[in-house]
Amino acid sequence: MSRRRHSDDSDAGQTHKRRRTSEPSEIEERLESLICRVGEKSNSSLESNLEGLAGVLEADLPNYKSKILRILCTVARLLPEKLTVYTTLVGLLNARNYNFGGEFVEAMIRQLKECLKVNMYNEAVHLVRFLSDLVNCHVIAAPSMVAMFENFVSVTQEEDVPQVRCDWYVFAFLSSLPWVGKELYEKKDAEMDRLLSQTESYLKRRQKIHVPMLQVWTADKPHPQEEYLDCLWSQIQKLKKDRWQERHILRPYLAFDSILCEALQHNLPPFTPPPHTEDSVYPMPRVIFRMFDYTDDPEGPVMPGSHSVERFVIEENLHCIIKSHWKERKTCAAQLLSYPGNNKIPLNYHIVEVIFAELFQLPSPPHIEVMYTTLLIELCKLQPGSLPQVLAQATEMLYMRLDTMNTTCVDRFINWFSHHLSNFQFRWSWEDWSDCLTQDLEKPKPKFVREVLEKCMRLSYHQRIIDIVPASFSVLSPANPVCIYKYGDESNRSLPGYTVALCLTIAIKNKASNDEIFSILKDVPNPNQDDDDDEGFTFNPLKIEVFVQTLLHLAAKSFSHSFSALAKFHEVFKTLAESDEGKLHVLRVVYEVWKNHPQMIAVLVDKMIRTQIVDCAAVANWIFSSELAHDFTRFYIWEILHSTIRKMNKHVLKIHKELEETKARLARQHKRRDSDDDDDDDDRSSDREDGPLEEQIERLQEKVETAQSEQKNLFLVIFQRFIMLLTEHLVRCETGGIDVFTPWYKSCIERLQQIFLQHHQIIQQYMVTLENLLFTAELDHHILAVFQQFCALQA
Amino acid sequence: AWSSRRSGAAMCSMGTLSILRSDSYADLSQYRDQHFRGTRYDQERLLRKSCTLYVGNLSFYTTEEQIHELFGKSGDIKKVIMGLDKVKKTACGFCFVEYYARGDAENAMRYINGTRLDDRIIRTDWDAGFKEGRQYGRGRSGGQVRDEYRQDYDAGRGGYGKTVQCQ
After folding, report:
1. Taken in order A427, A428, A430, A432, is the CA torsion positive or negative?
2. Confidence (pLDDT) at B41
3. Which domain of life is it from (chain A) (predicted)?
4. Residue of A590, A548, A550 whose CA lies nearest to A570
């Protein structure tokens, strides 16, 4: 049976055959399709397609003007990679129908205001750029555009506003200049000079504490990781020096110059930036990721320099293409590869760089990580002769620079590379990386290889990994993921609890119940106290040890077996792990049994949290415990911790959502009752109706408060433990006179950063507590700096 | 505190474009389970809100652990149920993966479907939901139907098809 669900051929969008009626929605669909697909798969030029389309739309204006306005506004907002195509179209329409042009400009301004009101700042930038390019199409008069930019830049004079607010307005101004700088400068050079100088002085005085936290590499060589506004400023300065000559952007409107310059222009209405409010959330600052330059592809076209405006435009457009087509990987790959200018720029290099820029972006990638792996595979399929080589070159370069790569980015590199290899039979020239074999295993390069091999094993099996690497790499190969059962061997019979373990084994194999297990365990002495409790159920580490070791050993065959075991003996677990020490000890025993199989540890911890055998705080304490110190820098530990935090966050959100929904139900009930209210209302009956819902709301309020308090506590525990650990290290180094910056320290401080970055939205809520309780001025400046950098992200 | 900080795309009337709405990898396929108890409509309703995926073309040797690792890349997995030969009760090359959230299953359809596991291109499809008994192959010999009649030799799926083997 065919499971094909997307055709490989080029549908124009009408995949379903329907009777052509003239229903409004059908017409809107047709108009939308005509507009969105203009120029696609046509034998005529783009310009002639645009001219044709302008004619069709002009004829449709009397009947469908508002639909056309809506579609064009949406296209301006959502298809920025085709900006100049649609500004040209609007220009042609304006030339034929001045009123329509005016209405379009008004609609755009309304849309811009709406976007700013609801914090859609990325889309607002596209609208501003669209408006500015309309100056080139003679739709908007240059002086009025300059006036809008003057209002934008004057935001930098506002007092008591977050820096990220001023940043956005400056960015919206500067990032439009590649398109319209020339025209604006020609018409209003004095005003533009003033604007640029105001911008420069703002850029000089703005703080950049956040930058180190967002850089992928801590080193400046070979490519500095620049703050995004600094980079853009350099690019605009260079553009100005080149007298605003910009040759990369495709400008279809140039072909229509004779028509367009006959058109009457509109003035933008004066635009006041909406004021800053409590609800305003501005985009976070970024650092520009660069990994390639013109030396990397000596045989192909020259890569535009890092401060060229071409580089900016190419990167913007490629990012926009990914944003438009992230759900459709084949389309996305095809669109990326058909980016115009293929023979003038090393497109494969740009694409690979842009994809890695997103994958490594801090705090998080714009899209789910696995998307990038699959997108790169699609690109390799479409360009099998060239792209895999660029990718291999990129991998090599990333490997070479591991020493200064941010730990979070290394995580993503590990995940990407291992998953990628699993699609290509794990073929790689491992010998090229033999340099890492001579290094200390904790150093970034050997560490990276070890983690990659471990992940590769998870996607295959142990022997496969042994087979694919040279023998010399065995020191980096993962352990065989077998379970370690301390009561397994006869030689261990002197261990306390050995006989009980045997008993348990037989009982469990004979399908014993929870009660039977309890009675067997009664016989286990408690090493912690001389006389056992009457109940015998206070914290007894030996009981936990014997039970958990035995059960996990019996259920070792697969994840499903282990999950069944946890479910079957849930009661026993809950009782043994009732206290905090109990929970911690269960986790310790799980680790002892499965330390060769980190993946198993992770899924067991996940299950135990979900079935409330352990709680999130216990996991956090366990991760920072001395027993785990040896594994503290291993990737799987942090996967477990972040997964734990995410579960906590989802739990809080879920209860909050339940509360909101129940409140909404109550409100609807009131509304319904109010609408069919009689004068003689029976108050008692309506109270009775409200009663259960109100009770529910009260209970949920309590649940939310409890959950939030648990969440806050979790973060406090984690931060506290980090501070203790790091302070210990710093003090030790200081007194011993050794360098603070060991591989362990780099890893640890970046893991602390990672907590902030990966959960920044939640942590923002607890800033005051963190500042007052933990990140106080007495703290070592190394640690405090991380907190300050984090604060600077939304300052 | 929550809703006011969200980007608000849902709160205003700004629409999207149908070319950007396209999500062909996550759409329903043409396949419908012939053994499904209920109407076509029921089945499609369940498929559209399902968090469970059918995964096919697995090697007989692919383990639950490998599946968990790969499919875990699109989100937290609730359960993996290995497909078994009805007679031998051994893995017969398919499984079900259930996620907690539909969005995670959609991402698996978009980014894991059509990529490799154990060097084989695997295929995922929406499933109406696991029910006891559905973990068994429906072929006469106990494995999957596709392994009854295929003519090619596939080392990861027991060699030749069953009919060929019996010749």
Report:
1. positive
2. 96
3. Eukaryota
4. A548
What are the pLDDT digits (tens) for A39-61?
A: 888 889 999 999 999 999 999 99
The residue range of the domain holding A322 is 312-476
pLDDT of residue A2: 42
Q: How far is B22 from chain A (nearest CA, A)?
A: 7
Question: Considering its fold, how many domains does chain A have in total?
Answer: 3
Give the dihedral sign, CA A360/A365/A368/A372: negative
**Domain total of chain B:** 1
CATH code, domain carrying A397: 1.25.40.180
- Contact between residue A141 and residue A128 where contact means Cβ atoms under 8 Å apart: no
Alpha carbon distance A126, A129 (integer Å):
5
Verify that A650 and A756 share a domain, yes or no: yes
**Cβ atoms of residues B133 and B94 within 8 Å:** no
Q: Which of A476, A511, A526 is the last residue of a domain?
A: A476
In order of A85, A285, A307, A549, A644, the CA distances from A759 in angstroms are: 40, 16, 33, 34, 12
A719/A624 Cα distance (integer angstroms): 11
A784: in domain: yes
Q: What is the 3-state secondary structure (H, E, C) of B31-99?
A: CCCCCCCCCHHHHHHHHHHCCEEEEECCCCCCCHHHHHHHHHHHCCEEEEEEEECCCCCCEEEEEEEEE
Asked if B30 and A2 come within 8 Å (Cβ–Cβ), the reply is yes
CB contact set of B166 (below 8 Å; sequence gap of 6+): none
Tell me how many helices (H) and strands (E) chain B has.
6, 6
Per the domain annotation, does A302 fall within a domain?
no
User: What domain range includes position B119?
Assistant: 40-128
Distance between CA atoms of A538 and A608, rounded to whole angstroms? 20
Q: How confident is the model at residue A600 (pLDDT cuts 50, 70, 90)?
A: very high
Would you call A461 and B63 a contact, using CB atoms and an 8 Å cutoff? yes
pLDDT over 90, % of chain A: 85
Q: What is the CATH number of the domain that holds B122?
A: 3.30.70.330
Q: Is the pLDDT of residue A406 over 90?
A: yes
Structural tokens at position A497: 């609890």
Distances in whole angstroms, Cα of residue A332 to Cα of each of A355, A377, A516, B17, B80: 12, 12, 59, 16, 31
pLDDT value at residue A682: 56
pLDDT of residue B62 exceeding 70:
yes
* Average pLDDT value over all residues in chain A: 92
How many CB pairs below 8 A link A and B? Answer: 143
| Mean predicted confidence (pLDDT) in A193-218 | 95
- In this structure, are residues A231 and A205 in contact, taking their beta carbons and an 8 Å threshold? no
Contact A318, A339 (CB under 8 A): yes
Report how far residue B120's alpha carbon sits from residue A423's, in angstroms, rounded to the nearest whole number.
9
Instruction: Say how far apart CA A195 and CA A180 lie, in whole Å.
Output: 14
Please tell me the distance from the alpha carbon of residue B69 to that of residue A598, in angstroms, as a whole number.
12
Residue of A nearest to B59 (CA): A460
Using H for helix, E for strand and C for coil, what is the string for A466-502?
HHHCCHHHHHHCCCCCCCCCCCCCHHHCCCCCHHHHH
Domain shared by A239 and A90, yes or no = yes
From chain B, pick out residues whose CB is under 8 angstroms from the CB of A653: 2
Tokens 């055959």 map to which residue? A17
The tens digit of pLDDT for each residue in A554-569 reads 999 999 999 999 999 9
Residue among B64, B70, B158, B48 at smallest CA distance from B119: B70
Closest CA to A98 of A38, A156, A139: A139
Q: Which residues in chain A have their CB less than 8 angstroms from residue B117's CB?
A: 422, 459
Phi and psi (nearest 5°) for A368?
A: -60, 135
Given a cut of 90, is residue A393 above it in pLDDT? yes
Length of chain A equals 795
Within a domain: B70: yes
User: In the predicted model, is pLDDT for residue B124 greater than 70?
Assistant: yes
Check pLDDT > 50 for residue A14. Answer: no
